[in-house]
Design a protein that fits this description.
Layout lengths: L2 E11 L22 E14 L2 E2 L4 E8 L8 E8 L4 H11 L5 H6 L3 E10 L1 E4 L5 E4 L3 E7 L9 E3 L8 E11 L10 E10 L12
Parallel strand pairs: 5-6
Antiparallel strand pairs: 1-2, 1-12, 2-3, 2-4, 4-5, 7-8, 8-9, 9-11, 10-11, 11-12
Length: about 210
Amino acid sequence: MTYSISGHYIAGCSCAVICGCPVDAQPRDARGGTECRGTAVFHIADGRLDEVDLSGVDFAFYNLFPSNLTAGDWKVGVVIDTAASDAQADAVGRILSGQEGGPFGELAQFIGEFLGTERGAVSLSGGEQRGLSVEGHTQLTYEPLRGADGTPTTVTNAMFGFAPEYGIGKATGSSDAFGLSYEPSYGEEADFVFASEQEAGAPMARA
C-alpha cells in the first residue's frame, strides 16, 4: 500500500523561544522543565492512501516528548476531524501509526505509548489570526517571528522537521487532551509533504 499527503500545518508546544526537538536537542520550557508537550494540526490539501482520497482531511497530532527525540518513550495521541469519513479516518490512523511505512513508520520506533485516536472538530485558520483549533481540547494562535527585513524567520534542514523549511514564532492559548495539558509558547508552520516512499534525506526520514 502506498500513500502521499501534502498540505499545510501549524504547531505549538510548551518549549520556550525555539523548540529544540527538530534537531534532537533536550526540550526546555519557560519554567525549566525538560519535556515537550505539543499539538500539530495538519490540513491535507491533496492526498490518498491507495484508493482512499484524503484530500480535505484535517487531523491533530498530540505529543509528549520526555527528552530529546531519539531517547524515545514518546506519548502520542491523534484527533481526526469529524468531517472525515470512516474510511478516511482509518487511512489517516494507519499512516500516523506507522503501519504504512514512510517517515511515520521510521518514527514509530520512538513511541512508548500510543494514547489513542479520537474524532472531533479540527481546523486551521489563516490570515492575520492564524492558528489551530481542536474543539474541547486546544485553542492556539500563532504569530511568526520576523527578521530585520520584516520577513518570517525560518529554520531549514532540521533532522526531525515536518518540512525542509518552516517558519517559527510565538504561540498562545491553552491545550488539554489525552491528559497532556500545557500552555503553548513556541509555534511553527509550513507546507508539508509526507509519502510512503519518501526521498532519502528528507525531513523526518533520518531516524
